[in-house]
Amino acid sequence: xxxxxxxxxxxxxxxxxxxxxxxxxxxxxxxxxxxxxxxxxxxxxxxxxxxxxxxxxxxxxxxxxxxxxxxxxxxxxxxxxxxxxxxxxxxxxxxxxxxxxxxxxxxxxxxxxxxxxxxxxxxxxxxxxxxxxxxxxxxxxxxxxxxxxxxxxxxxxxxxxxxxxxxxxxxxxxxxxxxxxxxxxxxxxxxxxxxxxxxxxxxxxxxxxxxxxxxxxxxxxxxxxxxxxxxxxxxxxxxxxxxxxxxxxxxxxxxxxxxxxxxxxxxxxxxxxxxxxxxxxxxxxxxxxxxxxxxxxxxxxxxxxxxxxxxxxxxxxxxxxxxxxxxxxxxxxxxxxxxxxxxxxxxxxxx
Length: 351
Description:
Layout: H1 4-7, H2 13-33, H3 54-67, H4 74-84, E1 102-104, E2 114-115, H5 118-128, H6 130-140, H7 142-152, H8 157-179, H9 181-185, H10 190-212, H11 229-239, H12 249-259, H13 264-298, H14 301-328, H15 331-349
Antiparallel strand pairs: 1-2
């Protein structure tokens, strides 16, 4: 990666420029993607129905930014964060007159409707502030993305191949997610997350053991742009596993990269790049479906703060992960996943 040595100089002018670019990209993205603010009948901005404090927004932003790209399951960590911050209430919210506020009003197809709750708003919040993490990855891998743009213009064959591989790797998960989205939503449960954490850890350990048995040269020279269509599709099929809550999209993509001949660092890099269109699509879709409801509950300021914190923490996490994987591989993250599964089991199922 051309900017690697620059990334290793903390406090450099380059890093200060990168932070400014993160803020610019994040601001533009939020401006374009956020729905209009709810208003009172008098035309004034509506007062939030519930408070999401500065501290809460910072915590959720850090959890999202750090765990989104590390192979440790952002879902499992958000369960803990939402529980600790008391954001799990499914009690319907009411307006000042005591009338229920609807996320989706009762209809012929859905007579009971979907009432607006703090949990619904918190779940949406966790997806929408991914905009910050997306901005961080765009910035860190700016050179790769410029190469892709040059590839589209016929000036960079490697960039065009990389784009092809990203698209191929995205197709299976997007197709399965759109086709079975409602059924996948019903999979979510604490037991499902715990199972995914443990089974994912076993998969990581097996992949790490397999990698160490391969000749070092076979896993060090393959670049993500050099993957074949078949290899990229294999990584994409692996990514379908991440639709199971708690499995971790970054984890299965990295493991798929291992089996396709990528080094740990290149597997992580490809995972970040493949995540860009998927995370962007998820954030935009969630904003469209439930963004107004989320803003009605929490207001706009916590969203901006959470996205900013997610951007900065994601930048640190991505830089750390690439450096760490190049030396040590995935094993320690497998152990951490098992520890997290034990915490969730003890905290929620036994306590």
